[in-house]
Amino acid sequence: MTSPIKLALGPLLYYWPRDKVLSFYEQAAAWAVDTVYLGETVCSRRHELRLDDWLYLAEMLTAAGKEVVLSTQTLIESESDLKALRKVVDNGPFRVEANEFGAVRLLFEAGMAFVAGPALNVYNPDTLALLASWGAVRWVPPVEMPRTMLAAMPIPAGMETEVFAYGRLPLAFSSRCFTARHYNLQKDSCQFRCIDHPEGLLMNTREGEGFLTINGTQTQSGKVHTLALRLDELVGMPVTGLRLSPQAQHMAEVVATFRDALDGVLPTAQVAARLQPFLPALACDGYWLGKAGLAYTHNM
Amino acid sequence: MKYILGNQESVMPKPLLELICPAGSLPALKAAVDHGADGVYLGLKDNTNARNFSGLNFDAKALAEGVRYAHAKNCKVLMALNTYPQPTTLKRWQQAVDTAATAGLDAIILADPGLMAYAMKTHPQLRLHLSVQGSATNYEAINFYHEHFGIQRAVVPRVLSLPQVENVVQHTHVEIELFGFGGLCVMVEGRCLLSSYACGDSPNTFGACSPGHAVRWQQTPKGMETRLNGVLIDRYADHEKAGYPTLCKGRFEVQGETYYALEEPTSLNTLEMLPEMHRIGIAAIKIEGRQRSPAYVAQVTQVWRAAIDAVKRNPAAFKPQAAWLAQLDKVSEGSMHTLGAYYRPWK
């Protein structure tokens, strides 16, 4: 039976060459995702694609039957960041995901329905209800929110809930660039080194445990968070969609695995084996269970 | 879409360079008051604030005594309620707001919009500040909180440069408070889940980063190791002084190189930027360190009081005195100081 739960391709968090980005989304047009989030959310210096390029991709994906959402930058510091933000909000046809409250203000003022992104820190029903009153029609809970907390959230009528279900977790944001720091470069002359690391730079502990991932100004988990083996637990939950975060290789297979698992085409017992070859790092799912985010209760 | 700066709110002159000091305990509060703080900030004994450490913070009795003591010496008392309430515990945060209102606090420092709405509705006379944990780094965000909840002051995350702060000040009625001294978050406050990723507890919900219960120190043949929930944060040779395993300040290996991959264990000291902060119109300077001793609070408050008085007397002639810097060096965590993002050598 086809599951009503939708799949969304989250915003691309890494910095890839233009051709790779374009071909990634050309392929995504054929994947079993219902929604695609586009745009640069991490660093304003990244410029392989300009807003016009993202809008071109938005039109292409819309024509392919996808819902397209433009995601805004998570850290808005300067007047030029605000200028870029206003352009995204004023884009015209496409829905916008707000990733900080400057974007919420602009979207509220413009009377536009929007998606409340995972960095807005919505941890309780009062705040969620406020966001609904300001125009949010979908929210993405903080990635650290456990299943039990989500289950205890009354969801406003008409509000969709999209859970971060796959990918390295976006854990922290800074104005400092840790990739530039690694190369002893200043941020303003970073030589765009992020482009050499299509899935970031792995940061190991001094005993070789892959702990975190450096992605420019963003710090991600070292492990890949996945709820693929826990889809049965979504039954009875208010979850309407799952966010899958883009990775450089095998994203098509990841999407297909989630879709087949959701629809019961792929039996739960076989999900782990099917997903294993496509994981770029060890898996984790601790946040969902209210544990340390890096914990994992299955053996893949 | 520009924020219109109307006239009616600019009638009240904004404060300039108030000195806001940490009070993790009643003795620390008294130390701050006695050494010239314009305001102290404190929290209750639970996870409603972002310094939820055992042995810290205020119960009802200490709160009443603290408010009495501070107000008698014309010092304001602010309460941090700056973590995020959760569905099953929302009531406790709301009760904390009620406690603040009845205890006569001068303002509460909030991060969660839902809690702001509760405070505004239930205690309309209560002054609201936007916590640094609210992650507001631009004037659109700050003005949003002002328009919807009447926020009167915002504490800005320690990621903006001073020119960026100045641009914020020029586009808002909201008073801007900056961190001046103490521990330094390299990540945007409120936007950092590194601690919960490693050990399950984050500042947002638990009220602490790298909490004590998850910390282990262990002497090994390779050196002193510090761990957070088993994750090796750093290892120290015999001649090195082992630091607290705040996980963004550990040494890690990236592409074969082991170094402070995110941040050195430095602390923030912006003393030399006081004339610039004065010129920009910064309403208040916040000293970090509710987890520190009354002696720390006394020393730091004393130095900053003298410095702020000096800059107000004659900003052009201001120069940090060597004695001040020596006094601050003695109490700072780690041996290094940084101007943080306000001045960006790395930018």
Descriptive tags:
heterodimer, A: 300 residues, alpha/beta, TIM Barrel, 8-stranded parallel β-barrel, 9 helices, 28% helix, B: 347 residues, 8-stranded parallel beta barrel, 10 helices, globular, disordered N terminus
Question: What is the fourth-level CATH superfamily of chain A?
Answer: Aldolase class I
* Helicity of chain A, as a percent range: 25-40%
Oligomeric state of shown chains: heterodimer
Question: How many individual β-strands of chain A?
Answer: 12
Q: From N to C, what is the helix and strand string of chain A?
A: EHEHEHEHEHEHEHEEEEHHE
Low-confidence stretches of chain A are none
Query: Biggest β-sheet of chain B, characterized?
Result: 8 strands, parallel, barrel
Top-tier CATH class of chain A: Alpha Beta
State the largest interface. Answer: A-B, 74 and 69 residues
What is the makeup of the main sheet of chain A?
Answer: 8 strands, parallel, barrel
According to CATH, the fold-level topology of the largest domain in chain B is: TIM Barrel
Can you count the helices of chain A? 9
What's the tally of helices of chain B? 10
Beta-strand proportion of chain B: 15-25%
What does this entry look like structurally?
The complex is a heterodimer of chains A (300) and B (347). Chain A is an alpha/beta fold. Chain A has a single domain (6-169, 220-289), classed as Aldolase class I (TIM Barrel), CATH 3.20.20. Chain A is 28% helix and 21% strand. Chain A contains nine helices and twelve strands. In chain A, helix 6 (147-151) links the parallel strand 6 and strand 7 (160-174). In chain A, helix 3 (79-89) packs across helix 4 and helix 8 runs antiparallel to helix 9. The mean pLDDT of chain A is 96. Chain B has 347 residues and is of the alpha/beta class. Chain B folds into two domains: 10-184 and 266-342, Aldolase class I (TIM Barrel); 209-259, no CATH class. Chain B has helices at residues 26-34, 60-72, 90-102, 113-122, 139-149, 162-170, 194-199, 274-280, 294-313, 322-331, and strands at 18-22, 39-42, 76-81, 107-110, 128-130, 153-155, 175-182, 187-192, 215-220, 223-228, 231-236, 252-254, 257-259, 267-269, 284-287, 337-338. In chain B, a hairpin with a 2-residue loop joins strand 12 and strand 13 (257-259). In chain B, helix 3 packs across helix 4 and helix 9 (294-313) runs antiparallel to helix 10 (322-331). The longest helix of chain B has 20 residues, at 294-313. Mean pLDDT of chain B is 92; it is low at 1-8. Chains A and B meet through helix 3, helix 4, helix 5, strand 7 and helix 7 of A and helix 4, helix 5, strand 8, helix 7 and strand 11 of B.
